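We modelled the chain as a single entity of 354 amino acids. Its sequence is:
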Amino acid sequence: MSKKNSNFSNKLISWYLQNKRELPWRNTVNPYRIWLSEIMLQQTRVLQGLPYYLKFTEAYPKVEDLANAPEDEVLKLWQGLGYYSRARNLHATAKKVSEEMNGVFPKNYKDLLKLKGVGDYTASAIASISFNQPDAVVDGNVYRVLSRFFGISTPINTSAGQKEFKKLAQELIDRKQPGTFNQAIMEFGARYCVPQKPDCENCIFNDSCVAFQQKKVAELPIKIKAKPVKKRYFNYLVILAENERTILKQRTGKGIWQKLYEFPLIETSEEMNLSSLQKLQQFKNFSKNLTIESISLFNEKQLIHKLSHQHLHTRFWIIETSGETETNTSVSEIASYAVPVLIADFVSEFFENY
């Protein structure tokens, strides 16, 4: 390792040991706990993920407990954390480890990578923290720290960039304490070398950081522009029958919110008013066996729910019916179902005084 690289690693670890946050997954090398924390913190800030980690470890202290839980229960406990495929993969992997591996996680990067939902970053984190293997992590925080310190302009969302940064991180890792190094660089990126307006004047690396010396901090790391965000228009049909029952359906297919529950949905290519909604064949098919007393709009202004590559422009239509209506859910039981946070917020607001 070059002198510059060695100095970087030593200074980083020293900073971390003096400044690290006390977090529950840092008090253990248990691979189940490390895996759980890393899956939850993918695309999620620590402050948001911490309460979920505590809920899960209380409900499922061991991997066998998670494996034996019903999937709907796991999804319900995950509700609000987003990216629900993580929760489904979490449950599937818990079953695999519990039932096929006698509850023992693989001890090396290569075998960890075979677990569902475990990619390069998570496999490296578990291998280094739990088993002291010298496998470097590379995530958004690491890209930011390395691109700025070394002045690297290769786009991070290209295969060339990913290879370059992984190779560099692997060269930098402290082989005697790889888990500490990995946590140090992630912590430094999350708390100090932040995306917007980092405090470079007081940074421990400002005497050797290329981006700071060349006034390129705001420019790095470089990322090729993503595809434009797709707009989708959701119209939820909230049935209110006389017997205080409604209709919930489970989402199927491979799209967003797979296996979560929602009200009957009509997706359209543009914003709908009541007249245009009622003219749709899909609405006619849905309502042909209903005795509709009234239809009202819960939200005049569309609710815009932002996901990573799509924005959901959403309206909730309240449909009161009389006579016999084929419902499947009591209004009082809606809160017990695993639903997207968009639905949960509506349920909380609308049914609070129902």
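As a brief sanity check on the tokenised model: The two ends are 67 Å apart (CA to CA). The first helix runs from residue 3 to 19.
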